[in-house]
Amino acid sequence: xxxxxxxxxxxxxxxxxVQAPGQTEQRKPFFERxxxxxxxxxxxxxxxxxxxxxxxxxxxxxxxxxxxxxxxTEQYENISRVLNDFQATVDNDLNSLKFWTxxxxxxxxKLDLKVTALEKDLSDKGKQSLRENKEHKSLLFNLTQxxxxxxxxxxxxxxxxxxxxxxxxxLQDALKNQGDKMVQLExxxxxxLQNDALSSRQDPLRxxxxxxxxxxxxxxxxxxxxxxAQARLQPPEPTKPQxxxxxxxxxxxxxxxxxxxxxxxxxxxxxQPLSQSQPxxxxxxxxxxxxxxxxMLIFPGPSIQNYATFRKGFSAGIHxxxxxxxxxxxxxxxxxxxxxATEENDNKLVLYGRNSSERASVDFVIGDPAYRELxxxxxxxxxxxxxxxxxxxxxxxxxxxxxxxxxxxGSKFQKGYEIPPGGSVVLGQEQDSVGGGFDAAxxxxxxxxxxxxxxxxxxxxxxxxxxTGKGLPRGTILTLDDLAAxxxxxxxxxxxxxxxxx
Length: 502
Description:
By secondary structure, the protein is an alpha+beta fold. Among the domains are: 2-89; 295-500, Jelly Rolls. The chain contains 6 helices and 15 strands. The chain has helices at 2-19, 28-202, 204-233, 245-263, 274-277, 460-467; strands spanning 295-299, 307-310, 320-329, 338-341, 349-352, 361-366, 371-375, 385-392, 397-402, 405-410, 424-427, 446-454, 476-479, 483-487, 491-494. Strands 1, 3, 8, 9, 10, 12, 13 and 15 form an 8-stranded antiparallel beta sheet that branches. Strands 7-6-5-4-11-2-14 form a 7-stranded antiparallel beta sheet, with no helix packed on it. Helix 2 crosses helix 4. The longest helix has 175 residues, at 28-202. The model is unreliable at 204-287 (pLDDT under 50). Residues 197-280 are annotated as: Disordered. It holds the Pfam family Pentaxin.
C-alpha cells in the first residue's frame, strides 16, 4: 500500500516541476530527500519481493514436506504391518521349534538312558560271559578228571564183573540143587495128599482136624528153609538173580498149583507200588470272587485317540504314592498305563511302556529322567492280573507287586522328591505336553479295572486284600469314579465283580 501512495505522489508532483522551472533550485533538497526515499523504497521493495519469494518457496517446501511425510507414514504403516506379520510368523515358528526341541531333548534323554542301560547290560553280560568261560573251563577240567575216575571205576567194574559171573555160576548150581529138592518135595507132598485122601474116606472128622495143621506146618517149614537158602546164595547186586527167573518159573508154577490150598495161609499178596496204591492228586485251582472293581475301561487298539481323562488331578504335593489296578493285556506288550504331566515337566509320574521295547517291562518314571524298570512278562498272557506299584520319598523306596506277590523292589529312587499338584492325569497314553502329544506306539491295549491311587504307601496285607477281593483300603485320591471323559473307541463298562468284566 505504501508503494502505491508514493507512486501517486510522484505523478502529482511532476507537473508542478514542469510548470515552475524556476523553483527547481529551491526544491533540490526535497527531491534529494525524495530520491533517497525512492531508493529506500526500491530497496525495501526488493527486500520485500525477496522475502515474499522466500516465503513462497518455504510454503512450497512445507507442502512438499507434508505430502512426503504422508507418503512416509503410509510406508511406515505398511512396513509395520509386514513386520507384525513377520513377527507373528517368527513367534509361531519359534514356539514350534521350542516344542520340537523340548520333545527332541526328552527323546534324547530317554535314548541316553536306554543307551546307558544297554552299555551297562553289555558290560554285565561281558563280565558274566567271562565268568561263564572260567566256569566252563573249570567244568571241563573237572569233567576230564571225572572221566579219568570213571575209566578207573569201569576197569574195576570189569574186574567185579568176572567175580559176579563166577557168583552167578555158583548160584545156577545152587538153583539146580534147589530144583531137585523141590521135585523131591513135590513127590512127598503128592504121596501125602494121596494118603490123606485115603484116610479121609475112613475118618472125615479126623482128617479135618489133623491133615491141614500138619501139612501147613510142614510147608511153612519147607518154605522158610528154602527162603533162607536163597538168601545165603543171593549175590550182592539184587538185579543179577533176575536173569534166572525163566528157569525157575516152571518149577514155581507147578509147585504153587499143587500147594495152593495150604500155601495161601502163610503167604501174602504182593504189595502194589506207591504210584498204584495211592490215588493221583490233581491240582485244583481255586477261583476267587473279586467284587471290588466297580467298573472297567476297554482300550481296543493302539490309537492316539484312545485315552481317558479325570476331572481332577492331585490337589496337593505327594511324597508317598500307591497305584493299583487289575489289567488284562491284549496287545502282546504293555503300553503306557498312567501319565501325569505338569507345565514344568510332562513326566512327573508315568507307568511307561512301548511296543518296540526289547524286554517285557514297564518304566516307572517319577520326575523325568529318573525311572526304574519293572518286569512285566507275567502280565502278557491275555489274562487278568493285579498290579500294584508303591513309592515313598522318605527313603526313596519302591515296591512292585504282581498278583499280590512282591516282584521287585529297590531304594534310593527320588529320595525326598515331591510330585507337584495341579497337573493332568491320563490313562492309556503318555503325554509329551499337558493333555496331548500322544504316540500310538506308546498306547495301552487291553482292559483296565479297579484302578485306584492313594497318597500313602500301602502295606503288603492291604495289597493282598485288594488282590483277593477284600475291598479297597481307605484314603483313595483317584478312582475310575473320577473320570471326566473317555475318548476315541475307549469304553467305560460297569462291572462290580471281576468275573463279570468280560
